[in-house]
């Protein structure tokens, strides 16, 4: 069997968990994630983590914050007063919302 190397296109199922065991993302119920290894399409730790795998392999990766999404950046947190949410909108946890706030750099947020 051929091992995965940089430049290969792979299809993988994954289950992302935080250190406390909470799931933050998963391919469960969806098609496998497809990406070209080494292209920067996924976080570096995941990209490097599939190297040398062969079809059917399973692997647990512990990805350092520096090889994932980076450290928490308080300056990227946008305050959006609850009073500015339309009365007919009933946000639920996990819902994507498109909103704007004066002076904000981002308008898409995850509730």
List the helices and strands and how they pair.
Elements: E1 9-12, E2 15-17, E3 23-26, E4 33-36, H1 44-49, E5 96-98, E6 108-110
Antiparallel strand pairs: 1-4, 2-3, 5-6
Notable characteristics:
single chain, 111 residues, mainly beta, two-stranded antiparallel ribbon, 6 strands
In short:
With 111 residues, the protein is mainly beta. Helix content is 5%, strand content 19%.
Describe the structure.
With 111 residues, the chain is mainly β. It is 5% helix and 19% strand. The chain has one helix spanning 44-49, and strands at 9-12, 15-17, 23-26, 33-36, 96-98, 108-110. The strands form three sheets. Strands 1-4 form a two-stranded antiparallel sheet. A two-stranded antiparallel sheet has the order 2-3. The termini are far apart.
Largest sheet: spatial strand order:
1-4
Following the backbone from N to C, one meets helices and strands in this order, namely: EEEEHEE
Compute the number of helices: 1
Percent of residues in β-strands? 15-25%
Helix content: under 10%
Low-confidence stretches: none
Structural class estimated from helices and strands = mainly beta
Total E-strand runs: 6
Q: What is the arithmetic mean of pLDDT? A: 87
Global Rg:
18 Å
Q: Biggest sheet, in brief?
A: 2 strands, antiparallel
Distance between the termini: 44 Å
Overall, the morphology is elongated
